[in-house]
Amino acid sequence: MRQLKLISATALAAVLTFVHPSSFAASGDGDSDSDTNITPALINEVFDQVKTNYVDPVSDQKLVEGAIKGMLASLDPHSSYMDAKEYKEMMVQTRGEFGGLGMQVTMEDGAVKVISPIDDTPASHAGIKPGDLILAIDGTAVTDMTLSEAVDKLRGAIGSSVKLTMRRQGTDPFELTLTRAEIKVEPVKSHLADGDIAYVRLTSFTERTTSALEDAISTMRQQAGGKLVGVVLDLRNNPGGLLDQAVSVSNDFLDGGAIVSIKGRQPQDNRTFSAQPNHDIVRGLPMVVLINGGSASASEIVAGALHDDHRAVLMGTRSFGKGSVQTVLPIKESAGAIRLTTALYFTPSGRSIQAKGIEPDMEVDAAKIEKVDTGKTLHEADLKGALKNEQATPSKPASDDKATPEEPADKAAPSAAAAPAAASPAATSNLPPGATPLPLSSGLDVDAMGTDSDYQFVRAVDLLRGISLFKTLAAQ
Questions:
Q1: How far apart are the first and last CA of the chain?
Q2: Of residues 83, 252, 308, 365, which has the active-site annotation?
Q3: Do residues 19 and 64 lie in contact, with contact meaning Cβ atoms separated by under 8 Å?
Q4: 389 lies in a domain?
Q5: What are the tens digits of pLDDT across the range 75-117?
Q6: Cα(417)–Cα(401) distance, rounded to whole angstroms?
Q7: How far apart are CA 58 and CA 69, in angstroms?
Q8: Are residues 70 and 130 in the same domain?
Q9: Is-catalytic flag, 129?
């Protein structure tokens, strides 16, 4: 995620100069860390030893860049150095068009961990899920790679292949071969549900997210004849993106109030973002925000703001828990940049969600809804001698009964898909009959998201229907 304010290139040049031997005093005098014996003279000595004795000649540039990468990688999983090529690719990625496999990743315990695959990309088509671990890329273990180096190996020429050795919770390592493609991220997917509920799914926070969101809401309002009754904002598997887009998306659903505050080591890094008064583009309609373990960073800013400002109900499962802010600092000398963690962000209530995530108001596990054959149901009218209701209007047969004299509906063969998979009581505690829980490691079926087969989405729609009905009854 890129912070809005960048520091000067002059200050960054000093970072590079620090590790270059020409800047070190020969005597070794200078400031040193009180907890270590690492001094500029020591670094200078190691540099000279490598230059003189390493088995192959090595350039100053390679050693300096390696020192910088190691320095930043030792801080946290999100701080890294980008050379000129990587920096250019990162800038392209924030515009929503880039080449590669299409997944957001981080480093964890010597492996590359998938935060979320991006819709309609090689990663999502291959079935890669949030939480999957990449152990090797083209046979090379990622253990000794930085995150930047791993990402660089995942990227490549469009049409080229890459072999990934992966591990998923509860499974043995397995291999996938993916073909790299041009990744064009559509940040917003939307449709009108049941004729009057706006479903908006944000897949990422790129430069085009807010404008695409506003266009989608406008289109659905027209389709509904101006009579929307609620909004489902789907942030599941959204790995985040630009801070300014998280702020502007939150602003679109608020009428004032805090959105997020950022607190860093330096006073100039501290900042609070607030929503504009009377700006809510859906005019106070009830909202449900869907989140899960693939909702990270900018997604958590939006979810936290709408929750703490009492604007929406959060539904789903706990979010990823990335509550840090990275500033991209261009380096004039190398035409590259460093991505540095400079602050933590806090929700309007003052919560830091770093490594904790956001808990939903209503915990609803991902599940696949399947129709259950319940057999013939006995009603009062079926009882022998039951009183007739002469005033009742004939009931309309269900549209999917399709009964014929030759084959009555109650004798239809039961569906083979009706039997739900076995699961532990904890996994099914909030699921109804007919909803098959998905394994925690499997994530979501992207093609089913926002459809009648998406249990979390169906629960969100039911909640909005209930709120709408309550308001109607209260107004009578």
A1: 48
A2: 308
A3: yes
A4: no
A5: 998 899 998 988 887 887 777 666 789 998 988 888 999 988 8
A6: 18
A7: 16
A8: no
A9: no
Give yes or no: 297 in active site. Answer: yes
DSSP for 14-80, please give it: HHHHHHSGGGS-TT--S---TT----HHHHHHHHHHHHHHSSS---HHHHHHHHHHHHHHTT-TT-E
* Residues 238 and 166 occupy one common structural domain: no
* pLDDT, greater one: 344 or 148: 344
104: enclosing H helix or E strand: strand 103-108
pLDDT band at 402 (very low <50, low <70, confident <90, very high): very low
385 inside domain: no
Token readout for 101 is 């496999």
Closest CA to 210 of 244, 258, 248, 242: 248
Question: What gap in Å lies between CA 112 and CA 268, rounded to an integer?
Answer: 33
Active-site pick, 148, 204, 295, 297 = 297
Whether 119 sits among the annotated catalytic residues: the reply is no
Q: What does R_g of the chain's alpha carbons equal in angstroms?
A: 27
Q: Is 92 within the bounds of a domain?
A: no
Set 83, 244, 250, 322: catalytic member: 322
Q: Do 469 and 196 form a contact (C-beta atoms < 8 A)?
A: no
| Secondary structure E strands in 265-356 | 271-274, 287-291, 313-316, 324-331, 336-346
CB 217 within 8 A of CB 281: yes
